[in-house]
Amino acid sequence: MAAASSSKPTVLHLGDAIKYNHEFYNNEFSSRFNVIQATETDRESFIQALKTKKYGNFSALFRPHFQTGGFMGQWDSVLVPLLPPSVRIFASAGAGFNWADTDLLGSHKIWYANGAGASDEAVSDTALYMVLGVFRNFTRSQLAARTADVDTFNATHKLIATISRNPRNHVLGIVGFGNISKKLAYKAKTALGMKIHYFDIVRATPQEEEALGATYHSSLDDLLKLADCISLHTPLNKHTQDLIGKEQIALMKPGSRIVNTARGQVLNESALIDALQSGHISAAALDVHYHEPQVSPELAKMENVTLTTHIGGGALETRINFELNAMKNIIAVVGEDGNFKGEPITPVNRKAFEAATSS
User: Where is the D-isomer specific 2-hydroxyacid dehydrogenase NAD-binding domain (predicted)?
Assistant: First the structure.
């Protein structure tokens, strides 16, 4: 497919066609841009397409669904330099971006914008469910009930009351205090009566801390020592790989709990298994997995571990808004002439982008 001749800036569409926001797409998006669908299905053919300028000097990359459009693999030092200098923004669905070197994109004066905000409600609800679950051992009880065995039912009925706790007045230690975890903090404090403590490299405003009743810790270790349950909410990058490992878990209280709705490799799987087997960690809940989509067979056997299939953001509202926000980000950045006209709504790589554009 050759690049179409059009006076409108070109957007290269990666992955499946839009599914939800057809009115916005027709009236606001495709009326402003010449949208071309990438036809490649593997990395090498996509690299060749970029080298031969198959799609011309496009102004934006548009990936409206995080489950498709990733056929080219990592956006790395091989792929990014092949993009034409006309590219202003890569707008993608999904909150995570460990598959793209966003700093490298920024150094090429390309914004990267994710779907931040679209999944906040769903992921914070999932984390709240998991926090309640690890205190009350609901997974163990569900597994017992599903045996349909009377003896198992009775034994578990008796056991649960001796090992479960109400979350109220316990300390929820939140690692990474972004929009999702701030929603979790509000829900856990309001609905469950928990005490909110958090660690982040950037401290929230005094107004946010007061509204959420949140106590800041400048040291992750200090938070781990205090928390009755930690909930992980950090992106996966070279700094957060195995952020919670053997040494960090050892700092936690005996019998404490771990919830992970962030990325699997933020939490060292082997260290978690050892801590669960020893009883140092009493329960865990994981929506994300170290070798995803492969779930640890050892964890799968443990009745005190809740496991889900990375569905933290898995609500229809999330998908609708991922798609919509990707379009809105491109509209915010790319002007009628294909040049910059503004900033994205949900920028990820501001520091790298501003460093490149100011030099």
Answer: 130-312
What distance in Å separates the CA atoms of residue 129 and residue 291, rounded to the nearest whole number? 23
Domain match, 167 and 229 both: yes
Catalytic residue among 43, 165, 310, 350: 310
Q: Name the active-site residue from 63, 65, 263, 289.
A: 263
d(C-alpha 317, C-alpha 313), whole Å: 9
pLDDT digits (tens, 9 = 90+) for 288-326: 999 999 999 999 999 999 999 999 999 999 999 999 999
Nearest CA to 235 out of 350, 334, 99 is that of: 99
146 counts as catalytic? no
Q: What is the pLDDT of residue 7?
A: 86
Q: Is 292 a catalytic residue?
A: yes
Alpha-carbon gap, residue 49 to 255, rounded angstroms: 55
Question: Same structural domain for residues 328 and 346?
Answer: yes
| CATH number of 322's domain | 3.40.50.720
Question: Is 310 noted as a catalytic residue in this protein?
Answer: yes
Instruction: Please tell me whether residues 138 and 235 are part of one structural domain.
Output: yes
Domain count for the chain: 2
pTM of the model: 0.86
Question: Are residues 136 and 107 located together in one domain of the fold?
Answer: no
168 with 90, same domain?
A: no
Polymer length of the chain? 359
| Active-site residue, from 28, 209, 292, 343 | 292
Q: What's the gap between Cα 181 and its chain centre? A: 11
- Over residues 91-122, the pLDDT tens digits come to 999 887 888 999 999 999 999 999 888 999 99
Whether 312 is covered by a domain: the verdict is: no
The reply to whether 87 and 30 lie within a common domain is yes
Placement of tokens 């975890």 in the chain: 181
For residue 179, give its domain range.
120-307
